[in-house]
From TrEMBL, chain A:
GO terms for molecular function: Atg8-family ligase activity. It comes from the Eukaryota. Keywords: Autophagy, Cytoplasm, Protein transport, Transport, Ubl conjugation pathway. GO terms for cellular component: cytosol; phagophore assembly site. It holds the Pfam family Autophagy_act_C. The keyword Membrane does not apply. Residues 164-183 have a biased composition (Acidic residues). The lineage of its organism: Eukaryota, Fungi, Dikarya, Basidiomycota, Agaricomycotina. This is Autophagy-related protein 3.
Length: 378, 329
């Protein structure tokens, strides 16, 4: 059934025309050229992202051969989304996030509500259904976290889950005589702290009792021709580097979206790879709302700057540095060209280069514990 | 003085590697179990700040392999180091179990040692070995990594002050200068030498240029740096071990005490943060093996149960059409 559906979607996408006109402000959709421009901007600003060419047989001709999709590896995910269940008690933890440049007074309506601000981790907040048994204990900071986490034994505790690896499947070939104990190998210290370990003040002491199980994700962004929006794909690993099963991935997706908008599907740039994907059917409308809000504030800001008669060189620099600067974009669209043609009379508003940065903030709300949004420092 | 303990590599195999291996196995390798050259990658160890507790959490010291590991002309992303290795896939689980692991391991260690003595090529210092068995019908992949590292006897010790922030030795301008020079290198250097010029500038050079670069520099003023995949503040990453063996083997006169820079800044820090790189002085008893005989090596990866044994990637939930169909309902 799912295979048929996937094929149907593939055909539908094949038949749908490539979007030519830029309409990202009107309905939140972007053209492939704009996707590339926004991707270039993302890669430039945040080098953790890079372009990939993908499987040559799956290359899409409306995108440059070496810029088929964006990828970032090893995105950390410290907690499960199920531990973020939202209750009324959390409402006072909401905090307004301002997107306006801090140098200017922020215009109305350009704030977002950040929930869970300053929230303390608490196991009691976890959903009753959350499985506590699969949470590993945090190793001490003077321990070798890498080695420690990698060696914690979880197998026995997870045996309730149907998809977990059966230990009997692993061939019985432990060979402890393969190498002698090596004093210079950082031991998995949560079990046996080596006496020779450098005794340093323990910065994570305070975090004791706080349970962490660090997963990492590979995140891909592709362009969906049918919905004319970017689309996000996830491949997850647990703390041992073992690929996550779909059930485990759904633990990292907010309850509103798991199994509804997030499904496991064949990754479109690979012949056989499967990945979890956020279905893009609602992306355009959400992006439209967000862009409208941001655009209004940006336009207001640009107008304000134009009105001020004296512009010192310093101010000019500041304007240029902004994301929405008036620099011409490579993915220039009719909108932008029109705005450029009218010269300084019409403010340009938000530029399409910024689309993916906004998009990541939107995705971060679907996968709240995966730190896809590396742009917060920005 | 405390013994230096190194954080071992933790393997991270992207599922795409198993897909690629399946393809290779069916279309090209077939029943051959000859060794296949592969490349892995590691980069500067990352730590993430837990937004709820404010703690820095060190991420595992990963060596990653993926589908591109089989491509010879693979172009690495910026800032990653690309160790080469050997993949050996067995046809049956019995062969996999019966593999002569000691011989395979020693062969790889011998290659590293040969490169130290003959080519002096530091790119070969992080060679690794991967043995696999692919159960294609059940989508199960058994694998076992080895990262050979030479054992120093007696062990290296670190001064009582431990690892200090690099800012204690190099001011921020110097560190950004090092960062800038690393970016302009034709290849990303896994190891490099740092020298303070009389003018106050710092310059870097590949470790291969040791003799020329440090010709007029006394051993105390030498700083040897490596790209550190470990984000743990007290345990340097695995690649340092073979670098130390390299230095002892080739330049025994000047390297019984070395100052090591753990390079941990892939990007210059934001204005509010500090440089993460660390510096420490390591020393070894002068009597440590100076012969050209190969020291013993260790480095088989432990499995999640903490034992020396193979790991298992069970991709049935992500590859088996039956489970995928069940998932989609």
């Amino acid at each position: 059934m799912q295979a048929i559906q996937s094929h149907l979607f593939a055909v539908r996408e094949y038949l749908s025309p490539v979007l030519k006109e830029s309409k990202f402000k009107e309905h939140g959709r972007i053209t492939p050229e704009e996707f590339v421009a926004a991707g270039d901007f993302l890669v430039y600003k945040f080098p953790v992202w890079s372009w990939e060419k993908g499987d040559a047989s799956k290359a899409r001709d409306f995108l440059p051969a070496d810029k088929q999709y964006l990828v970032t590896h090893g995105v950390p995910c410290l907690r499960r989304a199920t531990s973020l269940a939202y209750t009324d008690a959390d409402e006072d933890a909401e905090r307004l996030l301002s997107f306006a440049d801090s140098s200017t007074p922020s215009a109305d309506g350009d704030e977002w509500v950040e929930t869970h601000a300053g929230r303390k981790a608490s196991n009691a907040n976890a959903k009753p259904g959350a499985d506590h048994s699969d949470i590993a204990e945090i190793p001490d900071a003077d321990d070798d976290v890498a080695a420690g986490v990698g060696s914690l034994s979880l197998g026995g505790k997870e045996s309730k889950e149907p998809e977990v690896i059966d230990l009997d499947d692993i061939p019985d070939m432990e060979e402890d005589d393969l190498e002698d104990g090596d004093e210079a190998t950082a031991a998995p210290k949560p079990k046996a702290p080596a006496p020779a370990a450098v005794a340093e003040p323990n910065p994570a002491e305070a975090a004791k009792g706080n349970l962490l199980q660090v997963r990492t994700y590979d995140v891909m962004i592709t362009y969906d021709k049918y919905y004319q929006t970017p689309r996000v794909w996830l491949i997850g690993y647990d703390e041992n580097g073992t690929p996550l099963t779909p059930t485990q991935i759904f633990q990292d997706i907010s309850a509103d979206h798991a199994h509804k908008t997030v499904t496991i599907e064949p990754f479109i740039h690979s012949a056989s790879l499967q990945a979890a994907s956020v279905h893009p059917c609602k992306h355009a409308s959400v992006m439209k709302k967000v862009i409208e809000r941001m655009n209004n504030s940006v336009v207001a800001e640009q107008l304000a700057q134009r009105k001020s008669p004296v512009t010192s060189p310093k101010d000019k620099d500041a304007t240029k540095k902004k994301w929405f600067g008036t620099r011409k974009s490579s993915g220039s669209s009719k909108d932008i060209q029109a705005a450029a043609a009218e010269g300084d009379d019409e403010p340009e508003g938000m530029r399409v280069d910024f689309y993916l940065v906004v998009f990541l903030k939107f995705i971060a709300s679907i996968v709240p514990t995966i730190e896809v949004d590396s742009t917060t420092s920005f | 003085m405390p013994i230096v303990q190194f954080a071992p590599f933790a393997s991270l195999v992207q599922p795409s590697l198993w897909h690629k291996l399946t393809e290779l196995k069916i279309d090209i390798l077939k029943l051959s179990d000859a060794a296949v050259p592969i490349t892995g990658s590691y980069s500067i160890g990352r730590s993430v700040k837990d937004r709820e507790t404010g703690q820095e959490i060190a991420l595992p010291c990963n060596l990653t392999i993926g589908s591109e590991s089989f491509e010879e002309a693979h172009k690495p992303p910026r800032g990653s180091v690309f160790p080469v290795g050997t993949l050996k896939n067995y046809n049956t689980i019995e062969d996999f179990k019966a593999a002569d692991k000691t011989t395979l391991f020693n062969y790889e260690a011998e290659l590293i040692w040969d490169h130290i003595l003959k080519t002096r090529d530091t790119a070969q210092l992080n060679r690794f070995l991967l043995i696999t068995f692919a159960d294609l019908k059940k989508y199960k992949y058994y694998y076992w990594f080895a990262f050979p590292a030479f054992v120093s006897k007696p062990a290296w010790e670190i001064g009582d002050e431990g690892w200090a922030n690099a800012a204690s030795e190099f001011n921020p301008e110097k560190l950004s200068s090092i960062h800038g020079q690393l970016q302009t290198q034709p290849t990303h250097l896994p190891y490099f030498l740092v020298k303070k010029e009389a003018s106050g500038d710092v310059i870097i050079a590949p470790v291969e240029d040791y003799e020329k670069f440090y010709a007029s520099v006394p051993p105390e003023a030498q700083t040897i740096a490596f790209v550190d995949p470990s984000a743990d503040p007290s345990n340097p990453g695995w690649p340092l071990r073979n670098l130390l063996a390299y230095l002892r083997a080739l330049y025994p006169a000047t390297t019984s005490t070395v100052r090591i820079l753990r390079w941990r800044d892939s990007e210059p820090p934001s204005p509010s943060a500090t440089w993460k790189s660390q510096i420490g002085t390591l020393s070894v008893a002068a009597a440590a093996s100076l012969s050209s005989e190969r020291p013993s090596a260790v480095g088989w990866e432990k499995n999640p149960q903490g034992k020396l044994g193979p790991r298992l990637a069970d991709l049935a939930p992500m590859m088996d059409p039956t489970s995928l169909a069940a998932q989609a309902v």
